[in-house]
Design brief:
The protein is α+β, with helices and mostly antiparallel strands. The protein is about 40% helix and about 20% strand. The chain contains 18 helices and 23 strands. Helix 15 packs across helix 16.
Amino acid sequence: MHCERFLHKIVKYYSEVIKISEDLRGLTMEYLIGVDLGTTSTKAVLFDTEGHVIASANKGYKLYRDEPDMAEEDLNEIWEAFVDAMTEVVRGANGGKILGVSFSSAMHSLIAFDKDWQPLTRVITWADTRAVKYTEELKSTGLGQEIYSKTGTPIHPMAPLSKMLWLKDEKPDIYNNAAHYLGIKEYLFNRLFGANKMDISIASGTGMFNIFNLDWDEQALEVTGIKKEQMPQPVEPYEIERGMVAEYAAVMGLDIDTPFVYGAGDGPLSNLGVNAVQPGVAAVTIGTSGAIRVVTDAPKIDPKGRTFTYALDKDHWVVGGPVNNGGDVFRWARDKMFDAEKSTAALMGVDTYDLLTEIASKIPAGADGLLFHPYLGGERAPIWDANARGSFFGLTHNHTRAHMVRAVLEGIIFNIYMVALALEEVVGNLKSVQATGGFARSALWRQMTADIFEQPVTVPTAFESGALAATVMAQKALGMVDSLDVIGDMVGDSNTYDPNPENYEAYRELTPIFIRLARQLQTEYANIANFQRKHVNKGDK
């Protein structure tokens, strides 16, 4: 009996120890959530305070292209994706404390709401080019350059500035009934907290925000006919909201007073996320689209209007150029030209992209004189022409589909390099390149970038750069760190690819041809685009 009682006491004692240990672990484990609001998906990533990934969830949604040049998202689908992703990663915290949630968000989106905050539109994304007519009119008058010189956002259909003009002229019912305008992230904050705010990073991409006085630009407002009261209140990226709707907090498994930090645009945060914040260090990102950016300590305007200047915060400004055509062009090549290879890859159990890059790697640098201009969806930087179209140049009897896929991959990098040349005119010489995005997973693409740029290319092994950077902003907002520089200790390992001198000659000869050709073809882009709108798209409506 004594023995049994003794054993019982031991079991009870250790059970209590285990419970206390678990309780302590639950109390002491602290986490941050970075949310990346993208064009086709929302990703939530759970980090510990050292920047290690604990859990992640990625929920997709459709990009609606119901008519020519349209690119919209559904508000409810975005909301559901956000809630589902958040719920999943909160569960991954296993009862640990969520210190804060912060956001990286796609830029240039626009949603109109009536006076009762009922949406009048879907999310009109950066990829929507229906405002091209109004953009060209703005550019032709010289007014566009005036506004650009104060806002830092190139005059292009991507920007809400142009979208407002389009709504005013072609959607008067929406325009006349719109009492409020928000973007994708601001919509979530409005639904969660009833807030009507926009961080200065997102605001700096609207084309309507004066980056020198950090307020809505009077001239841009006057041009669009929008009143300042219809726009959200500009706030620092470190602005915090607490006290969310209890119902939503319960669904996601969060305390209602969990701090939600506004964060910044995905472009500026990409630089921070790969620790490309030193002078002359460029961040090249290629996912569906792409960009190259450099951080400066003050806004810098390109007199030729080729580069953007967006805020990370008041002390960090990101100068660069975005491109429409990145990984989506490679996907087009895969789907339209390499059906047989898709089937082969499926049989072999390998990724089709890996098979195509292997095929491309057998072709010499420069694809034996075959150039590809990757302007399948118009183009932003460096030509800022929504009418731009793609083309192969230099085709001969000797060229094969293998040459074509090599030219496609090189064309994407040549175009980014064109942007880099414009960027150097504004911020000075580039010293090195940090690469991120889906393309950075391809060894061939990494080497191409190093060879064409003639610069070392460094690729961090961690790929959650945007979400990580958002959580560092949260740490600063919450007083956990004094400076964003701490991200240098969190980025982790990286690999550097040095340029191959054997490829210099080919790329040095081809680069100026690629650039001159892009300029010469611009005279005909509008003509071929108008033909396509008139004839080709009729059956798509």
